[in-house]
Design goal:
- The complex is a heterodimer.
- Chain A contains 7 helices and 6 strands; from the N terminus they run αααβαββαββαβα.
- By secondary structure, chain A is an alpha+beta fold.
- Chain B is an alpha+beta fold.
- In chain B, strands 15-14-20-19-18-16-17 form a 7-stranded mixed beta sheet.
- In chain B, strand 18, helix 11 and strand 19 form a beta-alpha-beta unit.
- Classes of the chains: A alpha+beta, B alpha+beta.
- The structure holds iron/sulfur cluster (4 copies) and FE2/S2 (inorganic) cluster.
Chain lengths: 169, 558
């Protein structure tokens, strides 16, 4: 109690005469308001107008699809292991390709994902990267589980992120 | 006793022991690849180099016999430098395969690369490439690039499986493993090489790529395949068994198990043919019903039958607990002495390594706990004959398939007034059953098996049934089990509506008016320990992980 009254007292003492009568301060505040009213608009008219994030942005994680139509992922399960939210499920299987192993099933539960980017960081194949997609709305839980059909993204669409990773990772 | 000093710690050893053996016995691990406690010493990996005072050069701990007063350093600068060099050397041609290698997570090379290597390679030249997917035998895949030429697999075939099939060919960095001309790695123990291979060069064809080791839980149990009762671990992910591996028990199976046990004793647990919830035959068809309805129906139908016309067949596949309750149920609830079980023997299966002719895990146990005819009761032949003669009107069959031993019975089983079966899976016999109770498999319950030596060993639940919560039951939990919810597809593995036979029969007794109050398998075991002389003084803690030898007058093995 005594502390509160002390600080109250101190504050009163700090105010100058002009501050005490408030009017100039109100005028100052209103000046700022009017200044911003005439400044150019910052708000975007989403969804008519879309925000295109920079390469450093971490949108939903996607799987890289090579130009040859093959996925890079070898189903090592490291992303699934590192994911702090347990969002990723990978089921490996054998293929005739040189890299023996591929993901028969790869699912990310977008309701679990926290967009930390650890999956991207741990991946030994540069096969999972954070995209620029932030439009994630679902009407039920099942829809939020993205399979390979939604995850595989042509490498051409991911070039700037991959470049960013090679530079800073 | 003579003594040596390892890293300043004085330890006793037995004359003739090597440094690595003496160290191991006292809990000091000296890094090694090629040495294995049960194989001859080959001394070719050089990972176990240690410094011994008064010796001019470093020596390999696996081949150097300890002598009194020896002073060994495993952490001296010289020893560490040697280990780093060996690791660097081994990694020169080792592919960067960990992401696609099944061994990752349980790989000695991976572990040692963390513990004993500089973490940098100075090798900039092209690595030597070798064959990557060689089916070296029907059950084992070989990746030549990953092999570190430790020769453990070769020595295993020569010394343990007694079937030399593998050998080294070529020299230097081209050296590789191959089978002798016209041979395959197909001995009945071939898959043990997968366990002892310190790297991922030899992999299990059946398990390959199914799961990462860190995603599975592992539970200590006993193999179901024969009366040896090899100690095993059951590896489970999403409530499904994916592989079995042997667990060390010097008294029973050492470090090994046979391929039959490893491959053919777990797939029925998650198979399509599992009985899921009780079934009653209505209009000629088995239909699913609730437990209470099945108990009530069974009780009312059994009550109408004369005691002498009832027979009960116990099971060498079921636990001692199940068989003890079966015997108690037969005698004091149904009041019949017609009780026995079916022997399943195959002399061609047996060998002088591990495999036994008795293809069931618990025939000795079943007999000890009372599943045998008493007074003037009928034995199994008598029961079968009386079914054919029409003298037996009601049959209760526990976890077995009567038709598999006598196909003729088909015509008679249908004529029984009531035929009840406790079964894990639908089989030929359940085709004729009036009531089928779903029995929990050996991987879903607690209990004990007695092997052919008279050793009682514990099994534990590794797979959860519908009424079980892994965490509350104290079952092994993988990371996924701990955090999965009902909304995660990876946590929705099938849970069967099945119960252990002892539980089914005690509920049935209660419906029939004789109270049996067992809460868990351990209660049943404790009662056995107080009423059966051979089990005196035992409990689940005494049996522990490695089992306990029963004091038997004579081991009357089938
Ligand atoms: S971004 Fe993070 S939370 Fe999302 S899937 Fe990757 S590791 Fe998991
Ligand atoms: S870490 Fe990369 S390669 Fe491994 S499973 Fe994940 S996406 Fe595939
Ligand atoms: S295959 Fe494995 S066990 Fe056999 S020599 Fe190579 S590394 Fe050793
Ligand atoms: S020897 Fe018998 S108990 Fe051992 S693994 Fe083979 S089948 Fe199983
Ligand atoms: S363990 Fe001693 S040389 Fe391989």
């Amino acid at each position: 109690m005594s502390q509160t009254s002390n600080s109250l007292k101190k504050r009163k003492k700090d105010l100058t005469f002009w501050q005490k009568i408030y009017i100039p301060e109100i005028a100052k505040g209103l000046a700022l308001t009017f200044k911003n009213m005439v400044r150019p608009k910052f708000t975007m008219e989403y969804p008519e107008e879309k925000f295109i994030p920079p390469p450093s942005y971490r949108g939903r994680p996607v799987l890289v699809l090579e130009e040859t139509g093959e996925e890079r992922c070898v189903a090592c399960g490291l992303c699934s292991r590192v994911c702090p939210a347990l969002a990723i499920e990978v089921q490996a299987a054998e293929t005739e390709r040189e890299k023996e192993r591929y993901p028969e099933k790869f699912e990310i539960n977008m309701l679990r994902c926290i967009f930390c980017g650890l999956c991207e960081e741990v991946c030994p194949e540069e096969a999972i990267v954070m995209s620029k997609d932030y439009e994630l709305a679902f009407t039920n839980r099942e829809d939020a589980i993205y399979g390979k059909d939604k995850l595989l993204t042509p490498v051409s669409q991911l070039e700037d992120r991959i470049e960013f990773l090679r530079k800073y990772k | 006793m003579p003594k040596i000093i390892i890293d300043g710690k004085e330890i006793e050893f037995r004359q003739g022991q090597t440094i690595i053996e003496a160290a191991k016995e006292h809990g000091i691990e000296i890094p090694h690849f090629c040495w294995h406690p049960k194989l001859s010493v080959s001394g070719n990996c050089r990972m176990c180099l240690v410094e011994v005072e008064k010796m001019p050069k470093l020596v390999i701990a696996c081949a150097t016999v300890a002598s009194d007063g020896m002073v060994v350093h495993t952490e001296s600068p010289k020893a560490i430098a040697a280990r780093n060099a060996v690791m660097e050397f081994l990694l020169i041609n080792h592919p960067l395969d960990c992401p696609i290698c099944d061994e990752a997570g349980e790989c000695k090379l991976q572990d040692y690369a963390y513990q004993h290597s500089l973490g940098e390679s100075r090798f900039v030249e092209e690595k030597v490439h070798k064959d990557k997917r060689v089916k070296i035998g029907p059950r084992v895949m070989f990746d030549a690039e990953r092999c570190i030429s430790c020769s453990r697999c070769i020595r295993f075939c020569d010394e343990i499986a007694k079937d030399p099939e593998l050998t080294f060919v070529k020299r230097g960095d081209r050296v590789t493993i191959t089978t002798f001309p016209g041979e395959e790695l197909d001995n009945p123990y071939s898959m043990n090489v997968v366990d002892i291979c310190p790297v991922g060069a030899l992999t299990n064809v059946d398990f390959r790529f199914k799961a990462r080791v860190w995603d599975m839980s592992h539970t200590n149990s006993i193999c179901f395949g024969c009366a040896r009762g090899c100690n095993i671990e059951i590896w489970v992910r999403n409530n499904e068994i994916l592989r079995l591996t042997p667990r060390h028990n010097e008294e029973v199976n050492s470090y090994w198990m046979c391929d039959h046990g490893r491959l053919n004793t777990f797939k029925f647990v998650n198979s399509e043919t599992r009985v899921d919830s009780p079934h009653i035959r209505k209009d000629g068809k088995l239909v699913r019903v609730g437990w209470d309805e099945a108990f009530a129906e069974t009780a009312s139908r059994l009550k109408s039958i004369n005691k002498e016309q009832i027979a009960v067949i116990g099971s060498p596949y079921a636990t001692c607990e199940d068989n003890y309750i079966t015997s108690k149920f037969a005698r004091s609830v149904l009041g019949t002495n017609n009780i026995d079980f079916i022997r399943h023997t195959d002399y061609s299966f047996a060998d002088d390594i591990l495999r036994r002719e008795d293809l069931t895990p618990n025939s000795l146990g079943a007999e000890l706990v009372g599943v045998r005819p008493q007074k003037n009761g009928l034995n199994i032949e008598g029961i079968i004959k009386s079914i054919k003669d029409g003298k037996i009107k009601a049959l209760y069959l526990i976890e077995d398939d009567l038709l598999s031993i006598d196909h003729e019975l088909e015509n008679y089983l249908a004529k029984l007034e009531v035929f009840i079966v406790n079964a894990t899976n639908f089989n030929q016999s359940t085709n004729f059953a009036d009531i089928v109770f779903p029995a929990a498999t050996y991987a879903e319950k607690n209990g004990t098996f007695v092997n052919f030596q008279g050793r009682v060993q514990r099994i534990r639940p590794a797979v959860a049934t519908i009424e079980v919560d892994r965490a509350l039951e104290g079952m092994a939990l993988s990371r996924l089990d701990k955090f999965g919810t009902k909304f995660d597809r990876w946590a929705q593995g099938k849970h069967f509506d099945a119960r252990a036979t002892w539980k089914i029969l005690s509920s049935l007794s209660n419906v029939l008016g004789s109270k049996m109050k067992y809460q868990m398998a351990e209660d049943v075991f404790n009662e056995m320990a107080s009423s059966i002389p051979e089990f005196k003084g035992l409990d689940y803690d005494v049996i522990g992980e490695l089992g306990a030898q029963l004091k038997l007058e004579k081991v009357n093995v089938v």
